[in-house]
Model the fold of this input.
Amino acid sequence: MIKTVLFDLDGTLLPMDQKKFVKAYFGSLAKRLAPYGFEPEALSAGIWAGMAAMVKNNGEVLNEVRWWESFDAGFGEKAIKSRDELEAYYKEDFGGVRPSCGYNPQAKEVIEALKARGLRLVLATNPVFPKAATEHRIGWAGLEKSDFELITTYDNSHYCKPNPDYYREILAKIGASAEECLMVGNDVDEDMIAETLGMKVFLLTYDVLNKHEKDTSVYRQGGFSELMEYVEQICI
Done:
């Protein structure tokens, strides 16, 4: 019986056009860090490099450490001097990126319905953002931090999707077995990989990401209504 449901955030609970989001995000960050001498293109490259370093993280250190190792290596003294400013950006300015994302009221309805059933909920968003940035995005989706038993961020995680160890770390933290968990997400590579551990998976089809054009017919899938129908089947 399923006791825990893990949810992706971006493109799942929070409607998102990734290109639009990235443009707004990088643009606002570049504006904030311009006084420190960061050129927009170089800054964008540095952010992507930091994210790639986190995705490759082998678990020895937190993703946050991998991020700063990469950022400091790319920008040296300039990165060190701007550290406080960068952290302040996520608390103060990142909220301005909200118009680049959508909103689906069904997300909150589903979360509330699952909570009412007594299911444990985890926000299994790829932990490449600081806590403040993730909390902003939770709010944009119309949700609360308290909705989730665990929220993965770059300062509490040692792995990233699609590494199966990312999911193993979650299971260890919440004391659950893979067989009693359902992972819900829109990314075929990053979210459906949870199935290899023994989790059930559900592909939310509002904004499917399928970089490698895999056959998605093998997954239970659909919108929030179909998700709740599936939950009814596997939680009885």
